[in-house]
Amino acid sequence: MAAKKPASKKKPAAKAPAKRVVNINAIAKSLDDAAREAKAIAQISDTVELTLQEAYQVQKQMIALRQKRGERRVGIKMGFTSRAKIVQMGISDMIWGRLTNGMIVEEGGPIDFSRYVHPRVEPEIAFLLKRPLFGLVTPMQAMEAVEAIAPALEIIDSRYDNFKFSLADVVADNASSSGFVTGPWVKPDFDFSNLGLVLNFDGKPVQIGSTAAIMGHPVRSLVAAARFAAEAGEPLQTGWIVMAGGATAAEALSPNQHVEMEMEKMGRVSFSTRG
Ligand code: OOG
Ligand code: MG
Q1: What are 96-127's pLDDT values in tens digits?
Q2: Among 18, 58, 88, 145, which residue has the fewest nearby CB atoms (within 10 Å)?
Q3: Candidate of 43, 86, 154 to mutate for ligand 1, largest count of ligand atoms within 8 Å of Cβ
Q4: What is the pLDDT of residues 133-145, one digit of tens each?
Q5: 95 is in which domain, residue-wise?
Q6: Domain count, the chain
């Protein structure tokens, strides 16, 4: 019987620096799977810190997967455009995400709670465009492209454990975008820069705020959206919706809840959750 080889006394070779491997398609697929299966995943930044550019590539690829399944682009959403959101999430860089028709929630309609990981809702204002808008525009030029505005609710649902993420993580995850509901569309022929709003859960106020919380005037979010979209080579299109960003902190949803937001001069928008 051969004697056991004595354990080598050789010093282990110096560790080579960890190679930075970024597989955009694989990350996009894991985020898309997490969204479809309503199962949270670990933050990408636990393994690799994506650059912002890579994070937007992941986002684009994830949307491409949705488009392959028949979804189509209907607009863009802005994120971290209010102090309340910046404070709540600890991220102060403005971000944007891509909206598809698969994210539309019918006004007043139910959402199936089991299709989400840990959904939250936030009050926003939506713009509907009547002509394309791109690049550097003034607020006045931006408004000339607006057909109508509506009170809106965004349902965000981070695909990451505990709704925790870095800037690159949340960008890769399409800015936590999951669903959005728009209320009555009205002509923007009045001052909507400081409209009071109340978010109610089962008739009880959970957040109060104003459209002024969105960059002092929500049109500034539209101006930024025009710039971001153009930079990405996907200028805002006629018929697209731009979600301006949460005016207050987001509120966690529970099953079997009625959610309604009332915005001064604009009306109400609502949906309910089913357990
Ligand atoms: C990121 C999305 C931010 C907003 O309106 O500011 C956003 C998040 O908070 O999960 O949608
Ligand atoms: Mg939002």
Answers
A1: 999 999 999 999 999 999 999 999 999 999 99
A2: 18
A3: 154
A4: 989 999 999 999 9
A5: 72-158+180-274
A6: 1
